[in-house]
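Throughout our pipeline, every protein is held as a single compact record rather than as scattered files. Such a record has a labelled line for the sequence and another for the backbone structure tokens. This encoding replaces a full spatial description with a residue-level series of whole-number codes. For reference, a complete record is included directly beneath this paragraph.
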Amino acid sequence: MNKKAQKILFDMFWSPAGWRDDKERRISDADFAFAKSQGLMFDPIRSSHDEAVARLLGLIARLNRRVVADAFLASLSTRRLDWRSALGSYATFQHLAQHAAAGTTHACSICYTAMREQSVDLNVLNFERLKWGGVRHNQVVYAALDLELLLQSDVGVPTEEDKGIFRSILASIAEAPAKTTSAVLHKEFAAALKSNKSERDTLIAILGYCGILAVPEHPGFSDSFVALENRDLPMRHYVDMPYPACWWRREHGVNHARLNEYFGHIL
């Protein structure tokens, strides 16, 4: 990945103080052209609900669990968060079917895609993908971008170090205090995983989408797609993890059937 192009993208949206206000998001034509030439920035696209869903389903058909699981593993030692992200997008939408937009609000009640054609800024989505390993894995447009870029990427093969880091994550989960919730689980991860809190929270969310960190009543997306309208959230003022990881507590443990479906080849 070209570091100059990545810096241009990051500087567009992020400052030492955090997110830039919309009015501060400026970029020169030359910088945009360079970042675009490196595949890190994009022109806006217009997309309808049906087009976005069809595009995503076509990308999912070109992938499988082993490919995205290995990309996830290869991200652990390299800190290539873009490789990590794809597992979340694939896991969430692997069983999505083509469907007509449903509901009475601005977004589809099944997949949360805008009901009407709209302009989409792919640059902020790619920034989130590279900065944290993604934020919007449960949104069709993000997932399509995520998987398309993975397919274009020369993803590394998981190393023994990657596999060891993953096993250390599983051990940290198993050894966490009984009342640990998904929101504080990041504190238990071993130092072998070079990451900050936001990156670790995203990793936990991804394991939730896979059903590895889920609960019987809210099992994740591995068996079937869960429509937006059916994603119940805990009854509290602030829910700090996406569905279904928001329901997980240490007492639920790891779903070993799901773990083996995605990662059995290294366990």
Observations:
- The beta strands are 14-15, 18-19, 45-47, 118-120.
- Residues 160-266 form one domain.
